[in-house]
Design brief:
By secondary structure, the protein is α/β, with parallel strands linked by helices. It contains five helices and twelve strands. The chain has helices spanning 10-14, 51-64, 148-158, 167-177, 195-219; strands at 2-7, 23-27, 30-37, 40-46, 69-78, 86-94, 98-101, 104-107, 123-124, 135-140, 162-164, 180-189. Strand 2 and strand 3 form a beta hairpin. The radius of gyration is 17 Å and the shape is globular. It starts with a strand and ends with a helix.
């Protein structure tokens, strides 16, 4: 299988099979490491933070490398009390797509017409092999969350367990292109007032947890 992996920050990409490569490609600002693992052809690169970067990189790798599976690995903030520190993502929604109204923000399914009756339909991930990871729903948006009140709104309004800035965009690209997608995310912080310090403290450990889980999952495909 041809698998394209993206991450939001360099440390997350570097944590996947560190030092392994049989080539490096440069596409604009996107540096892509190429290697084989578990009998599959892997391309992995750090796209940069945010939904536009993720969507652009996913589309580029899907086109240039004829990817059959788009995958994102790395870190996320915690929204719910679901147990675990590394999760297999089952569903992704976008937390900043919808309509801003006098009574507040109304969520809609990303890409749908944000007028009329509100409805949020999650992007469903392709199931990776079971390696014992707990499952989670992730909420994606173009904001780093440092506010417990906003975390509560995402948890209660969208049933989110985790929050990040890229997964929902990759999922939307995969749906538009008719491709499978998957995601593995490890927790760095609680999406609260301590998030900046916790993220920086826990980044390397969490990035490696997610990368190691991805390595094992790919080996079993």
């Amino acid at each position: 299988m041809r698998i394209a992996i993206i991450t939001g920050v360099e440390e997350e990409a570097d944590a996947f099979l560190p030092g392994r490569q049989d080539g490096v490609e440069q596409h604009g600002h996107l540096s892509v490491r190429c290697l084989d693992h578990g009998g599959h052809r892997i391309t992995i690169g750090c796209c940069g933070v945010g939904k536009v970067n993720a969507a652009a990189a996913a589309t580029l790798l899907a086109s240039l490398h004829r990817a059959e599976l788009l995958m994102i690995i790395g870190t996320a903030g915690r929204l719910s009390a679901r147990e675990g520190d590394c999760f297999l993502i089952e569903e992704a929604v976008q937390g900043d797509y919808g309509a801003q109204r006098p009574g507040g923000f109304t969520h809609y399914t990303a890409g749908s017409w944000p007028i009329g009756p509100a409805r949020v339909e999650a992007f469903r991930a392709w199931p990776l092999p079971d390696i014992g990871l707990p499952r989670a729903r992730i909420v994606t948006g173009d904001a780093f969350i440092e506010c417990p009140d906003h975390s509560l709104r995402l948890r209660e309004g969208l049933a989110g367990d985790l929050v990040d800035m890229e997964t929902g965009a990759l999922a939307q690209v995969a749906q538009r292109l008719g491709l499978r997608w998957a995601a593995i995310k490890a927790v760095t912080d609680g999406a609260n007032g301590a998030s900046v310090g916790d993220f920086q403290t826990n980044l390397l450990r969490a990035a490696r947890r997610a990368a190691e889980a991805a390595e094992r999952s790919i080996e079993r495909l």
